[in-house]
Design goal:
There is one protein chain. The chain is 31% helix and 27% strand. With 352 residues, the chain is α+β, with helices and mostly antiparallel strands. It folds into three domains: 109 residues, Rossmann fold (3-Layer(aba) Sandwich), CATH 3.40.50; 141 residues, ATP-grasp fold, B domain (D-amino Acid Aminotransferase, Chain A, domain 1, 2-Layer Sandwich), CATH 3.30.470.20; 84 residues, Dna Ligase, domain 1, CATH 3.30.1490. Strand 12 and strand 13 form a beta hairpin. 43% of the residues are buried. Bound molecules: adenosine-5'-diphosphate and magnesium ion (MG). The site of magnesium ion has 2 residues, from loops. The site of adenosine-5'-diphosphate has 21 residues, from strand 9, strand 11, strand 12, strand 15 and strand 16.
Length: 352
């Protein structure tokens, strides 16, 4: 039996989602093959053993909190006793290379991307720059930084990465709208689960959208809004990775915001996406290319926007630890390709 640690919760805004993903992974793991240690990390970064009987672990609703926790005094001690770790953590301090770096230092194999690819994929602005180098089509954007020290002083970073200091928010808004038009999506460069993202259709709403995003990250993207269908593809593997069939997300709200993702049951996932084969193949090829270009290992879910009028494909983002609930897109796409959830988990752990 392999000694497997499953870590969930974590310090990011996606803490609650990670709990549901982590419990779902535990529920679907083959209990004959793994001796499982469920490890919960609180929002403050404290570590706990989840002491509930493994066979009784069921998933909960997003937002429900766990009981039956026992504080771990020395997390290193617990981790060092494991053969492999599955960090089912979304967002900062989980999907961004930090926990990966810690596990590297401790010589513990883990599921998923390594340090560099985790941190690049977490940061939308930097991921975009590298994907552009790979010739992958993406929505145009403007990249700014907020000066922490001075209110209303922003840095406008141009296409050649020149820093223009002391820009006011009014200047930034003018530049963004003249380059991108409207609508735009304003997002923290490090975001997930749509936290801090606003769709802006009227110029007067842009400053507040920027100030909202600044609460989550000092790097902000203002991205051209695409009138698009949302298509997602799962990629799996280390050497010669494979892509799954593609799925479509139909958000029940104006866009796929936090509420539409986790609280509005009218949002739908359609697998396989009802698009023609040629388009689906184009997306699958782009998914593999992006995965390779950003040095991904293990797994990633690659999300696309497909223009409703022209069918032009835009890569939207790469998630190196996508949602893992039993109704999440990543495991469901593989299920449709003939890889049931528990076999998928075996493969991920094997690749670690
Ligand atoms: N450029 C865009 N055009 C159209 N819709 C977008 C655009 N960017 C984001 N969205 C919408 O916002 C949602 C969240 O954005 P995304 O970049 O995927 O951030 P997150 O990492 O938080 O999931 C998307 O699923 C989509 O509904
Ligand atoms: Mg997304």
């Amino acid at each position: 039996m392999k000694k497997l640690g499953v870590i969930f919760g974590g310090k990011s805004t996606e803490h609650d989602v990670s709990i549901v993903s982590g419990l779902s992974v535990i529920k679907n793991l083959n209990k004959e093959k793994y001796e499982i240690t469920p490890i919960y990390m609180s929002k403050d970064g404290d570590w706990f053993l989840y002491t509930k009987d493994i066979k009784q672990i069921e998933t909960i609703e997003v937002g429900e909190q766990l009981t039956e926790l026992q504080k771990i005094d020395n997390p290193f001690e617990v981790l060092k006793g494991l053969d492999v770790v599955f960090p089912v953590l979304h967002g900062l301090y989980g999907e961004d290379g930090t926990i990966q770096g810690m596990l590297e230092l401790l010589n513990i194999p883990y599921v998923g991307c390594k340090v560099l690819s985790s941190s690049i994929c977490m940061d939308k602005a930097y991921a975009k720059m590298l994907l552009e180098k790979a010739g992958i089509n993406q929505a145009d954007f403007v990249f700014i930084k907020a000066e922490n020290t001075e209110p209303n002083k922003f840095i406008y970073i141009d296409e050649n990465l020149n820093f223009n200091y002391d820009e006011t928010i009014e200047n930034i808004c003018d530049k963004a709208i003249s380059k991108l038009g409207l609508p735009v999506f304003v997002k923290p460069s490090n975001s997930g689960s749509s936290v801090g993202i606003t769709k802006v259709s009227q110029k007067e709403n842009l400053p507040n959208a920027i100030l909202n995003a600044v609460q989550f990250d000092n790097k902000i993207l203002i991205e051209k809004g695409i009138n698009a269908r949302e298509i997602e593809c799962s990629v799996l593997g280390n050497y010669k990775p494979e892509s799954s069939c593609v799925g479509e997300v139909i958000p029940a709200e104006e866009f796929y915001d936090f509420n539409a993702k986790y609280h509005n049951s009218a949002s739908k996932i359609i697998i396989p996406a009802q698009i023609d084969e040629e388009l689906s193949n184009e997306i699958r090829k782009m998914a593999i290319k992006a995965y390779e270009a950003l040095d991904c290992k293990g797994l990633a879910r690659i999300d696309f926007l497909v223009d409703k009028n022209t069918n032009k494909v835009y890569l939207s983002e790469i998630n190196t630890m996508p949602g893992f609930t039993s109704i999440s897109m990543y495991p469901q796409l593989w299920e449709k390709c003939g890889k049931p959830y528990s076999k998928l988990l075996d493969e991920l752990i094997e690749n670690a």
